[in-house]
Amino acid sequence: MKHGQLATKELAEFIRERAAIEETYSKSMSKLAKMASNGSTLGTFAPMWDVFRVSADKLALCHLELMRKMNDLIRDINKYGEEQVKIHRKTKEEMVGTVEAVQALQAQNGHLQKSKEGYHAKCIELERLKKEGAPQKEVEKAEMKSKKAAESFALCIEKYNRVGGEFEQKMSESAQKFQEIEETHLRQMKQLIKGYSHSTEDTHVQVGQVHEEFKQNVENIGIDNLIQKFAEQKGTGKDRPALVGFEEYMTALAPEGGKKSRGKAFRIPGLGKRDKEPDSTSRLSNRSSRHAAFLDWTLMIKSVFHKPGGRCFGAFVRGLLSWVSSS
Question: What cellular component GO annotations does this protein have (predicted)?
């Protein structure tokens, strides 16, 4: 029974060491997942780090769950160990009769050996006296002692056999009890080991599923998908920019001091949509005036741009502004 208690303690220590290994492995996988999450976000390979991170996180959870199952199993083993101690204590109390039978047999065996030695000694003494021709009284006295020793030896044998029978009965009952205890112990130990095996097997199945999922995720993310995702994240849009046209540099028309001019926009009188036409007579008069003004404006442009000596554009602008203000 002592070996049974020792086996229970050693099994608990073994499972505890396995739980510590699983905890360390889980922490290492969590650290690896963090490393994957800190991977470079640049380039087309960046999305693959998410696959590594998810896989490492799931593996960490699998081994963490196995550690918890191992701790639960350790509690079951310790609980069984406490029950085992109680059973052994109770069994020892029930085996008191067997212990007494063993002690009685040992004591009777000692008496039997002494009685046997005494009987043999008396027989040897009687034979010696007969060989030496000792007096008849001494021979008769030795015969009497030898006879008493033989009777005492016979009584010891009878008592020893009786005690031996009781010993065999007690030992048979005790051995049967011990065998039942050991069978129960081994049955319970196998049940605990079965729980350990199932927990380990479940974790291995989960780990296999995680690896299969990792493999599938890698296969599902094609090269075209990686490149397209990179283009969507780093691109500036799907529409092409418009073509750039040539813009003439108009420095002379810019207001001085870099301020925006609040004056009215340049407009040829009589050509705007807002000009009203009250009646047909005024419309004819205005049309003639605009026609004359337009001819004057055209002649002015010709005369300005054909002046020798340069500054044609400035003269044109000044003449144009003067004409607008007068009209």
Answer: clathrin-coated pit; clathrin-coated vesicle; plasma membrane
